[in-house]
């Protein structure tokens, strides 16, 4: 799961988008359902500013950040077989629905 947003304009996010980006419940949900990466510490999800440097990140994250985005915030979720890529929903409930559909629950 990857959310890309513009931290300089975070005040323009809806309340639901802010909850998805900054909220404890989203992060707890993702930590409980995503595996640890190759470092054995970091779960396989990211919430990044559009300008984050990814040079030191795994190729999968570098590639995800290179994908075209029609707008910000942008949302990518995949379970390896199916997924969603598009604008981050305005509400946290809609965001969680997509996470549960493609990430398992």
Write the layout of secondary structure elements.
Blueprint: E1 2-5, H1 15-22, H2 24-33, E2 46-49, H3 59-66, E3 74-78, E4 83-87, H4 92-103
Describe this structure in words.
The chain has 105 residues and is an alpha+beta fold. The protein has one domain (2-103). 36% of the residues lie in helices and 17% in strands. The protein has a 4-stranded mixed β-sheet with strand order 2-1-3-4, with helices on both faces. Helix 1 packs across helix 2 (24-33) and helix 1 packs across helix 4.
Summarize this entry quickly:
This protein is α+β, with helices and mostly antiparallel strands and 105 residues long. It has four helices and four strands, in the order βααβαββα. It has helices spanning 15-22, 24-33, 59-66, 92-103; strands at 2-5, 46-49, 74-78, 83-87.
Judged by helices, strands and strand pairing, the structural class is alpha+beta
Tell me, rounded to a whole number, the average pLDDT: 95
> In whole angstroms, how far apart are the ends?
14 Å
Instruction: Show unreliable segments.
Output: none
Number of separate structural domains: 1
Radius of gyration: 13 Å
Number of strands: 4
Figure out the total of helices. 4
Brief descriptors of the model:
105 residues; alpha+beta; 4-stranded mixed sheet; 4 strands
